[in-house]
DNA sequence: AATTGAAGCAACCGCCATCCG
DNA sequence: ACGGATGGCGGTTGCTTCAAT
């Protein structure tokens, strides 16, 4: 999948990553963290640009990436956020733990954009938000307000201080305190909107994420995995993806016929915040690949 | 069985914002 | 305050896979 190696300009390799390269990168970050992406390839012994390493890590190797087809809930979230934020894939991805901006962007370009241009109904479980472009059901004033507040919420959460150390963190905290969106979001009006959301109408993907069960890579039910064989040869097909594939959720809601909890457990590769998954340095890469690839 | 075109997606490119000396 | 270095992001490319013919 992806591009094949095309050149070795300046001794730097391009194109698809080999398993060996993946392992080197994975092991290195596992031991040292990524540090400076610029110096990482040299330190790790990779003939790649730092940028390429960062991309590979964030889009594929990161253990907290959730693989497999997008669920109807996720589709709805993407459509909703794209409607309020536009093509801000990073901001959208920040609201969907386990999904990368690249993955969401691809999914939008190849599935949702196409589908939105057709009269086919979108699966919209757990949301009352109408979709822009649906001429038969124009956005109500209330809905538009909700969309505006959803946008505010996303902007505010995107500005939350990261885990950067020391002075940087203080500066971030300063910006954070002065932030317009956060002020708005933390106001009484914002609180009212949050309360409305809690009521069930417009599900926040953040709360959705926090409810997901965290599993170690070795805790996936072997029996379940054994029953999910598939003929697919793509290396990104996890056992979970195999289950989902059988019901092709992109066109139907059959996905919901499966146990939601079981699916979430299967789809959710451990991660949490930051690099806490690295604390457990068990057979890391091999287990990781075993889980991820068929 | 062979061919062809569409779909899917990993990876690259270039611009912009932020950091840091 | 300035400028180079670095990281992040969105758009695009092109290879692989798969379904249709």
What would you say this structure looks like, in words?
It is a single chain. With 294 residues, the chain is mostly helical. The chain has 3 domains: 9-61, Homeodomain-like (Arc Repressor Mutant, subunit A); 72-209, no CATH class; 222-292, no CATH class. Helices cover 51% and strands 0% of the residues. The protein is built from 15 helices and no strands. The radius of gyration is 21 Å and the shape is elongated. It starts with 18 loop residues before the first helix and ends with a helix. Residues 1-9, 120-148, 155-185 and 192-282 have low confidence and may be disordered. The chain binds a DNA duplex (21 and 21 nucleotides) through residues 1-4, 6, 14-17, 36-38, 50-52, 54-56, 58-60, 87-90, 101-103, 105-107, 109-111, 168, 233-234, 236.
